[in-house]
Amino acid sequence: MKIGITCYPTYGGSGVVATELGKALAARGHEVHFISYAPPFRLDHFAERIYFHEVNGFSYPLFEDPSYALTLTSKMVNVVQFEHLDILHVHYAIPHATSAVLARQILATYGIQIPVITTLHGTDATIVGQDPSFEPVVTYSINESDGITVVSEYLREETLRNFGVRKEITVIPNFVDVNRFKRQNKEHFKKAICPQGEKLMVHISNFRPVKRASDVVEVFSRLRKEGHCLKLLLVGDGPDRLPTEARARELGIFGDVRFLGKQEPVEEILSIADVFLMPSGSETFGLAALEAMACGVPVVSSNIGGLPELNIQGETGFLCDLGDIDAMTEAVKTVLNPQHHERFVLNALKRADYFRIENIVPMYEAYYNSVLAQMSRHTTL
Fold first, then answer.
1. Which top CATH class is 187-354?
2. What is the pLDDT at residue 166?
3. Distance between terminal CA atoms of the chain?
4. Annotated domain spans of the chain
5. What is the predicted pLDDT for the residue at 62?
6. Mean pLDDT of the chain
7. At a CB cut-off of 8 Å and minimum separation 6, what does 58 contact?
8. How far apart are CA 222 and CA 364, in angstroms?
9. pLDDT above 90 (res 123)
10. 365 confidence band (pLDDT: 50, 70, 90)
């Protein structure tokens, strides 16, 4: 099968999932064509059956805003036409689904039929899509897609509640490569960070306000003041990094905190972690938490969005009400208790194994085939 994949290539969950899916599909014998304005950041090397098609910018005096949606549409038409793709799989509704639907309509005038599958990842449906200026476009693009998938049952319900969706929505959860995300022997790294044998708490995000990174330092500060021997690593970058650093200084704990910025080999960092903290205000699935679990790291998270579908209360970690610093502090203490920690670790590993890439990618293959079969039936009628 020849599959075109479009995603945002930047640091974020939807781009990670799309890229890892494409790499896995190529490894299973499919031909994968990434169509985007830059190579996805998880596409660290090109392998057999993987291709990249750059969407070039266009400057014209009358266009005040970048015309990415239009140039993306043209590139999709070009790639489908000359690479003979079987399917277009777009991740994120705006503008990818809109561009793909328009590309399909243009291709139809050439006698080329190609189905469009749209995968919604979260904010494209829960935040951007609900803006009055975008809602009609998002609704139309979803309904005009030949297949719709979402990454959690929570997102499915939100999409049905907020949009006039007339088609069936299929849940295919996010996944993790357990061959990459696994506990590694990084004791020399752990010793450098925790020279006195301290426990290590880790947070990974893009430091947008919705990730509530400041809650992480609040929890850490309380644990330190109670005398717990603990260090904190914060991985990632974004608009909330400077305010979070400032808060750590105000609380007098900055010396025990390290801000590492964006890091690609996060599995090495997770390999030395004892607990992962995710206090997010919006999380459709929680891919970073899944990657932590695959490395044997229990998770303390908010109970928002799709997180309860991943993080099992009292088994793989704990779920807490949004902004409940007291509850999160107590949950971290319980997870780190030597009497309980190993049980949480084993449960986290077992839960992550359910979402291993080998289990989930066949779901996408089966879905592609069902959409192609449906289109074939409609064409022959």
1. alpha beta
2. 84
3. 24
4. 2-175+357-380, 187-354
5. 47
6. 92
7. 67, 70, 71
8. 44
9. no
10. very high
